[in-house]
Task: inverse folding
């Protein structure tokens, strides 16, 4: 057995097939071993293992090879968190009981791995890391893979591409930065004015038509953000004013005036004006919003003249030509507040009132340096639903180089369903957050018998559903091109901020929501997406994407024509000798010319 292990190790060293693995990736381990790779194992305990004397350790491992002993070979890479170790132990107990792999791992303990697949770069010895040829992670990904970073990066997209990010990314603001907070306040107010016009058109005479009536909240009017932060979502709150008291008659007229002024701003009619935007000063916004809440959230009636109805229709039609996100806004002005650097749906809150979001913003601002703990983003109020249930799409892609940018798109993906029917009058996570880690809390909920019990569909099942609706072409003609364009635009405006490293690659998971018109909207991009199977669909697809990723980054080096599975080349930039780095702040300096 020792002789066999030595032969395999010698061959692996000669062929540069030594790998290290950190994290719960049994599929990667199995695939690499099947290719003849030998693993240099990482420590399992919570502290870095000390190197034992070589002769003593060799005797222990040889004893294991013959069937005795229970210690594991030492490694010199930094340790991992205990929780990750326990999780991997559970998933890999069958493989790790094979003593010959432990013996081979000891025999290569002094070898620098040729390939590293890790869940976190910070866990790896920083002196060893630069010597590893192929690594599955890039450093400094915050500009792309945090909510704050993506929000800021996409604002700079016009410097790189003539594309309006509002066509694929719901508008987003970083709370804690004064300028962006003020921009959010103005956006919230303008959206409320547009929403009021939409609500007005849904009323016939003084009777509401086609709008849901929110149930009375069980929360008191004094309900504060720290209360709803615990439950991850805020519910519509009742105003202290009675819903039967009459609205002031100028409400619709003020909404019309604000939207008309906003159209002027969108048409750059205010370009030479030094006074504040009329959208901020033309009406009493505090009073307007309180009256809007009564109409939107309490069902207070509106009476509209024929002339006003025609004005509303005309204004909304003109606004639609200028605002690419008008179609996703709905009528209730719902916004979603997210922790800037958390994942798996943790800490996410839905809000329908400006004061809720501002209280949260005040809790995360303070001298001397502004910090962005939260971002606020426009909620897609009109998503495409399946069996009246909200879903999102997890779409994989791989970046194999940043300079020149080289991106591979994976043709297979999966859908994640919520556990309860979609409703904007009930803002609990079970209806609005599609993350598997959130929905597993609601395993007993079944919105519709046609929704799978594990709340997962493959893209093939989704395409079959679209075909039954008579929209079979929507996937290939609208959704896939939209996802590809959004991914590529996000990468283009972040590549100069990412730590590029030749020989590295990374598998990313982008999350998309689909609108009623089948247009995909990018929500976020995740580094190191989960490969833990939560269903039969993800068990198959996650195994496939790991297999195809190895084909792409390893097999293709020796055989450029080899199969790379479901990957296709999305973009390969023409190589250039140097790059022009765009700064975030540009200025012109000089002196004025005086007439002679």
Result:
């Amino acid at each position: 057995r020792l002789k066999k292990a030595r032969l395999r190790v010698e061959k692996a060293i000669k062929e540069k097939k030594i790998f290290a693995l950190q994290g719960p990736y049994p599929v990667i381990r199995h695939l690499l071993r099947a290719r003849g790779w030998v693993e240099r194992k990482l420590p399992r305990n919570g502290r870095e293992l000390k190197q034992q004397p070589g002769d003593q350790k060799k005797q222990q491992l040889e004893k294991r090879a013959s069937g005795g002993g229970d210690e594991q070979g030492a490694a010199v890479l930094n340790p991992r968190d205990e929780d990750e170790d326990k999780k991997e132990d559970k998933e890999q107990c069958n493989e790790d009981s094979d003593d010959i792999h432990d013996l081979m791992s000891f025999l290569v303990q002094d070898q620098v791995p040729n390939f590293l697949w890790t869940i976190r770069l910070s866990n790896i010895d920083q002196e060893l890391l630069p010597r590893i040829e192929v690594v599955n992670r890039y450093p400094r990904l915050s500009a792309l893979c945090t909510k704050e970073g993506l929000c800021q990066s996409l604002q700079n997209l016009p410097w790189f591409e003539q594309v309006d990010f509002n066509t694929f990314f719901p508008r987003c603001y970083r709370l804690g930065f004064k300028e962006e907070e003020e921009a959010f306040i103005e956006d919230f107010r303008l959206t409320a004015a547009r929403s009021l016009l939409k609500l007005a058109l849904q009323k016939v005479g003084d009777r509401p038509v086609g709008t849901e009536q929110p149930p009375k909240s069980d929360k008191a009017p004094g309900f504060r953000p720290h209360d709803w932060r615990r439950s991850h979502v805020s519910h519509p709150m009742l105003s202290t004013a009675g819903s039967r008291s009459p609205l002031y008659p100028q409400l619709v007229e003020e909404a019309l005036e604000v939207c008309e002024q906003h159209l002027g701003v969108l048409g750059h009619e205010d370009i030479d004006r030094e006074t504040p935007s009329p959208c901020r000063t033309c009406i009493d916004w505090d009073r307007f919003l309180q009256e809007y809440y009564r109409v939107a959230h309490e069902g207070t009636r509106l009476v509209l003249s024929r002339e006003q109805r025609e004005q509303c229709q005309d204004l909304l039609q003109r606004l639609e030509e200028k605002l690419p996100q008008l179609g996703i806004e709905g009528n209730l002005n719902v916004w979603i507040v997210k922790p800037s650097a958390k994942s798996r749906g943790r800490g996410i809150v839905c809000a329908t009132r400006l004061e809720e979001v501002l209280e949260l913003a005040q809790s995360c601002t303070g001298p001397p340096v502004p910090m962005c703990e939260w971002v606020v983003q426009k909620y897609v109020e009109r998503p495409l639903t399946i069996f009246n249930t909200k879903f999102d799409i997890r779409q994989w892609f791989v970046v194999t180089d940043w300079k020149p940018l080289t991106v591979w798109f994976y043709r297979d993906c999966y859908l994640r369903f919520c556990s309860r029917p979609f409703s904007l009058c009930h803002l609990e996570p079970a209806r609005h957050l599609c993350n598997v880690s959130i929905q597993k809390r609601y395993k007993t909920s079944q919105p519709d018998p046609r929704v799978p019990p594990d709340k997962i569909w493959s893209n093939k099942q989704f395409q079959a559903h679209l075909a039954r609706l008579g929209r079979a072409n929507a996937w290939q003609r609208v959704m896939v091109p939209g996802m590809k364009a959004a991914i590529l635009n996000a990468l283009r405006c972040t590549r100069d901020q990412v730590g590029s490293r030749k020989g590295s690659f990374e598998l990313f998971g982008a999350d998309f929501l689909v609108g009623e018109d089948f247009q995909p909207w990018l929500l976020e991009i995740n580094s190191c997406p989960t490969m833990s199977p939560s269903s039969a669909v993800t068990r198959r697809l996650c195994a496939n994407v790991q297999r195809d990723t190895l084909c792409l980054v390893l097999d293709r080096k020796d055989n450029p024509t080899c199969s790379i599975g479901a990957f296709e080349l999305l973009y390969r930039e023409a190589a250039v000798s140097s790059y022009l780095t765009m700064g975030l702040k540009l200025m012109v300096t000089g002196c004025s010319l005086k007439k002679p």
Notes: The CA atoms of residues 420 and 447 lie 5 Å apart. Confidence is low (pLDDT under 50) at residues 45-97, 204-243, 365-369.
